[in-house]
Amino acid sequence: EDFLNLIFKAMMKDSLNSSHPISSTVQSSEQIEEMFDALSYIKGASLLLMLKHYLTKDVFQAGIEVYLHNHSYGSTKSDDLWDSMNEITNGTLDVKKLMKTWILHKGFPLVTVVRKGKNISVQQEKFLYRVEPENWTSDASYLWHIPLTYVTNNCNFTYCTNAYLLDQKSGM
Fold it and tell me: Starting from the edge strand earliest in sequence, which strands make up the sheet with 119-126, in order?
């Protein structure tokens, strides 16, 4: 419950246009200090949980092990983690491409799901809680690669989870 409260608090901050991406280029030590705030840590943890759920626990764990083995006693950058995950997925999923849309964009998407009979359509747009005129910028080009999981009436959540990657503004 405490973790959920932290996530919702971070999402509230991230839904403001004055938010910042998790990863960005810095020019000064002050900018480094600004980057490492609660938003970065909580959003980062949430994104890792999202990735773990999408890849499955075993694949995610194997990717972490490769990352730790390849970079023990050294320094890294975020791409190193995504490259380790790509190594484990054998090119079936471009984890780096997926995750860059999350760490380089500020904010998060609002996904709208519409059902018409047996057809489902999904659409994404940037979610803004409150537009602050002094910090407003157009984010119409924002596009996330959103891993969606779902179940049908032919299976239950534990045994038969289906996955879909929404990497366009809308999809079916």
Answer: 109-116, 119-126, 170-171
Q: How far apart are the first and last CA of the chain?
A: 33
Are 65 and 79 contained in the same domain? yes
Do residues 114 and 121 make contact, with C-beta atoms less than 8 angstroms apart?
yes
For residue 117, what are its two tokens?
A: 């009979």
| DSSP type of residue 130 | B
Q: How do the pLDDT tens digits run along the chain, 172 residues long? A: 888 888 888 888 888 877 888 887 767 777 776 677 778 889 999 999 999 999 999 999 999 999 999 999 999 888 999 999 999 999 889 999 999 999 998 889 999 999 999 899 999 998 888 665 555 555 567 899 999 988 777 776 566 677 889 999 999 7
Report how many domains make up the chain. 2
Supply φ then ψ for residue 97, to 5 degrees.
-60, -45
- Domain hosting 117: range is 108-166
DSSP 16: B
Kindly report the pTM of this predicted structure. Answer: 0.82
The answer to whether 147 and 98 are in contact (CB under 8 A) is: yes
